[in-house]
Amino acid sequence: MSIPGFGGGIEPIENTSGEWTTVEVTGFSEWRVEVPHRTILKFKVIDGIGEIFGTELPLNVELQVSGVKYAVYAPLSSGFKLEYKTLANKSVMTNEDEEISDYISNETQAHQAYINLHLGLQTIRQEIRDYNILNPQDVKKGPRVLIIGNPNSGKTSLAKILSSYANKMDSTPVLVNLNPRDGVFSLPGSISATPISDSLDIESANGWGFTTTSGSLIHNPKQPIVKNYGFSSINENLDLYKYQISKLGVTVLSRLEEDITIRNSGIIIDTPSLTIKDITIIENIVSDFEVNIIVVMGNERLLNDLKKKFKHKLDSQLQVIKVPISGGIAEVDDSFIRRSQEETIKEYFNGNYKTRLSPFKTDIDAKDLTIFKGVLSSDIASTLSFLPSADSYAADESDDKDDKDKTDDSLTKYYSLLTEPSSSNLDNSIMAITQLPQTSNPGKDLLNTSILGYVHISKYEDDKHKMKILLPFPGAFPKNVLISTNIGFNE
Ligand SMILES: Nc1ncnc2c1ncn2[C@@H]1O[C@H](COP(=O)(O)OP(=O)(O)OP(=O)(O)O)[C@@H](O)[C@H]1O
Fold first, then answer.
1. CATH superfamily of 360-488
2. Is 465 in contact with 426 (CB distance < 8 Å)?
3. Atom 27 in ligand 1: which residue has the minimum CA distance?
4. What confidence category does residue 412 fall into, taking pLDDT thresholds of 50, 70 and 90?
5. CA distance to 132, 203, 347, 491, per residue, from 9 (Å)
6. Phi, psi of 269 (to 5 degrees)
7. Which residues sit with their C-beta closer than 6 Å to ligand 1?
8. Is 381 helix (H, G, I), strand (E, B) or coil?
9. Cα-to-centroid distance, 358 and ligand 1 (Å)
10. pLDDT tens profile 238-271
11. CA torsion sign, 229 to 230 to 235 to 237?
């Protein structure tokens, strides 16, 4: 039976009679494997312990992944043995090669450095926990770690390793994803913060896992706080991006205040690739999340530049350290990224082979809806000089007098009202449902709101002003303010 919505986006997996291939990996080595989206890799560890970016694999349990570049690491000297076989992924049509590429490497010094970093962070967490028990009037926060580096330097993999190992040692750090391209426990176009209270789901589309929208799951669903940015690239509207970071920072820090386990565990922040030219963004993140450890991926120049920039904070408030880049990092091109985004979106609505979800397709009247759209900075460059800057707006925030007027002016820099929704601007797009009840003038609330979830618009009927939408859950469409994103998706 096909799932309502994306016309049965999940193809049944054919049983394959193919032979299993055995891989033996000695202690502290790793099996590196690249699996194209059009190929499914089934594998199971049959002896010993293997882990993928810190997540331990269950023994004798068959797992399957597609469209991933993974390393299965042997954390113990006894190593592990696994079996795998491949089959075609019929739900994906790409012109990639069908073959997986794999090899075993014992050059895992980088991974061992990541483990040492984790152990150092865990020692700090333990000290903070002890201190907080003895000094309830003067509680401190666990380490707030910011990962910075070049494109494809292993930032996300390190974030996974640090959060998985922390979780294994009974900590619950908040994993913050500031790369809107990825969609972590959410869709691409968002930035999010998620307490990691259970292991990651390496079988899910991006290797993180499902969220609570999805019903009963094998893994504990994670509960992210999601801010909608609406674009994949941070440069599309840098002011909006920085604004959303600051609001996410406020929410995350208040979460730390409220929950002692999370406060002791701290924060791990993954970022898009940032260089020293992006120092204002880095400074913003450092202050918004009270970062006290910056981890630079391999880049010595960046390490030194950052040490100079943060000279005034070094030792007392901030450490800047460098870790090596793994030799296993795989090339990832734009089409692979786009395909991974599509899989993330598909999985958000339909689930995956293990967890099938029941999205809900319905027609709604679009006449009375208030829909905003993120503004492209390039589109407003010419009018920008007439508007207050984001910084002046932020400074004005606490000033109640004339607040509404200032906010509405500032809003034009971030969002514009979609006065004429049409098939040309809405067909095959993703829309965010905010927490705000319908109002044509939400003011600064629109900037400050978090996201309830996302819907997919497959068709806007211009003559009837009706939209065909796909919701991740059955039920009435929430009558809230909507934000149309720049993230497209074809069924
Ligand atoms: N040791 C390894 N063996 C095999 N593949 C790896 C290894 N480490 C990382 N990868 C893969 O290499 C790719 C790039 O790594 P990752 O996404 O962590 O880098 P990044 O710096 O976050 O990238 P971006 O700049 O695109 O955000 C990913 O597909 C990741 O799964």
1. Pre-mRNA cleavage complex subunit Clp1, C-terminal domain (2.40.30.330)
2. no
3. 272
4. confident
5. 49, 17, 9, 8
6. -115, 120
7. 32, 69-71, 149, 151-157, 179, 273, 326, 328-330, 332
8. coil
9. 32
10. 999 999 999 999 999 999 999 999 999 999 999 9
11. negative
Measured between alpha carbons, how far is 288 from 246 in angstroms, rounded to an integer? 5
Q: Which residues pair with 480 in a beta bridge?
A: 437
Classify 360 as helix, strand or coil.
Answer: strand
**What's the gap in Å between 339 CA and the centre of ligand 1?**
16
In DSSP terms, 461 is beta-bridged to: 466
Angle at 304 between CA 302 and CA 309, to 5 degrees: 90
The letter for the amino acid at 308 is: K
Phi and psi at residue 8, in whole multiples of 5°?
A: 75, 55
Query: What is the amino acid identity at position 315?
Result: D
Structure tokens at 344: 């993330």
* Domain-wise residue ranges, the chain: 21-106, 109-323, 360-488
pTM of structure: 0.90
The residue that leads in pLDDT, 378 or 58, is 58
Q: Return the closest-CA partner of residue 253 out of 218, 284, 288.
A: 288
- How many Cα neighbours within 13 Å face the side chain of 455? 31
Q: For residue 151, give the ligand 1 atom closest to its CA.
A: 25
Residue 219: is its pLDDT beyond 50?
A: yes
CATH of domain 109-323: 3.40.50.300
Q: Does ipTM surpass 0.95 in this model? A: yes
Q: List the alpha helices (DSSP H) in 273-333.
A: 279-288, 300-309
d(CA 230, CA 191): 9
Rounded CA-CA distance 218/128 in Å is 32
Check pLDDT > 70 for residue 331: yes
Q: In angstroms, rounded to a whole number, what is the distance separating the alpha carbons of residues 430 and 360?
A: 15
What backbone torsions phi and psi does residue 216 show, to the nearest 5 degrees? Answer: -80, 135
- For residue 316, the CA-to-ligand 1 centroid distance in Å is 32
Beta pairing class for 63-73 and 101-105: unpaired
CATH of 21-106, one of 2.60.120.1030, 1.20.1250.20, 3.20.20.100, 3.50.30.10: 2.60.120.1030
Query: Is residue 195 over pLDDT 90?
Result: yes
pLDDT at 217 over 60: no
Tokens of 407: 């906010």
